[in-house]
Amino acid sequence: MIAGTSVSLARLRNKKERVDWHDFLIIMRNLRAHFTDEEYRELGRSHIRSPPLLFAFVIGRLLLSSIELYR
Q1: Are the beta carbons of 41 and 69 closer than 8 angstroms?
Q2: Does residue 55 sit in the same domain as residue 29?
Q3: How far, in Å, CA of 67 to CA of 71, rounded?
């Protein structure tokens, strides 16, 4: 997963650490061989369905129109 990057496994396991964009792209390219398109879509769906994000969407819909929420 981290082959060809400057990122260590310990750094990836630390949720307070950040990864440079270039390293992120290499990691995503490395993972591509292990996931199908549908699995990638499901990862995105599961993120959108997380309780904190759903709560933010509810508040956003109460305060903003659809266009304003999109912006």
Answers
A1: no
A2: no
A3: 6
